[in-house]
Design goal:
The complex is a heterodimer of chains A (about 110) and B (about 110). With about 110 residues, chain A is mainly beta. Chain A is about 0% helix and about 55% strand. Chain A has no helices and eleven strands. Chain A has strands spanning about 5, 10-15, 20-25, 30-40, 40-50, 55, 65-70, 75-80, 85-95, 105, 110-114. Chain B has no helices and twelve strands. Chain B has strands spanning about 5, 10-15, 20, 25, 35-40, 45-50, 55-60, 65-70, 75-80, 85-95, 100-105, 105-110. Chain B is globular and about 45 Å long. Classes of the chains: A mainly beta (about 110), B mainly beta (about 110). The interface between A and B is medium-sized, with 26 and 24 residues.
Chain lengths: ~110, ~110
């Protein structure tokens, strides 16, 4: 079984709809991240969380919100989706503060906003 | 603030040829550098990382990278590529406080027979 799972894997929605992307991990890591990937732009950080009570904005948080329901679950919400939020979204996890700790990525959610 | 520049958006190469993917960084603090690979329809996975010590870092699948502080570079190399190396490659730098990564825009490696 995958260590970092994302649901749904694909989603098509309409402008103005609220949508939630979910991430779960079984690695026991305390830190979780949400990124979006756009062609030619690489990965950009949306939000990150160091534990259930610690949520931080990333580079491009406008139009997004997050919820850390438990150590293992980190959800990303688009309150009112717009077409330029069409992208590939990745969740990632890492353990602790050491620079030796790599980030482990989920398989991604492809979101299309019409 | 840290930043990463990947100069090539695409690198086409023939199978069994050598390849170099370029990465330059800008950082005002201690540098920790990473290369990730993304195969089609998959998430990212770590190829290799430089934290300290030897400037030549070996990773998985025969890849290696060399940290060059004077040129602020961390180029990725493989002496002989395979079709299965076709993927997108991302260079990343860890930001101060070790809390987040800044990624480059990616380089698509296209290996043809």
């Amino acid at each position: 079984d995958a260590d970092v799972t994302q649901t749904p894997r694909n989603r098509i929605t309409k402008t103005g709809k609220r949508i939630m992307l979910e991430c779960s991990q079984t690695k026991g890591h305390d830190r979780m991240y949400w990124y979006r990937q756009d062609p030619g732009l690489g990965l950009r950080l949306i939000y990150y969380s160091f534990d259930v009570k610690d949520i931080n904005k990333g580079e491009i948080s406008d139009g997004y919100s997050v919820s850390r329901q438990a150590q293992a679950k980190f959800s990303l919400s688009l309150e009112s989706a717009i077409p330029n939020q069409t992208a590939l979204y990745f969740c990632a996890t890492t353990a602790g503060t050491s620079a030796y700790n790599e980030q482990f990525f989920g398989p991604g959610t492809r979101l299309t906003v019409l | 603030a840290q930043s990463v520049t990947q100069l090539d958006s695409q690198v086409p190469v023939f199978e069994e040829a050598p390849v170099e993917l370029r990465c330059n960084y800008s950082s005002s603090v201690s540098v920790y550098l990473f290369w990730y690979v993304q195969y089609p329809n998959q998430g990212l996975q770590l190829l290799l990382k430089y934290l300290s010590g030897s400037t030549l870092v070996k990773g998985i699948n025969g890849f290696e990278a060399e940290f060059n502080k004077s040129q602020t570079s961390f180029h990725l190399r493989k002496p002989s590529v395979h079709i299965s190396d076709t993927a997108e490659y991302f260079c990343a730098v860890r930001n101060s406080g070790y809390s987040t990564l800044t990624f480059g825009k990616g380089t698509m490696l296209l290996v043809s027979p």
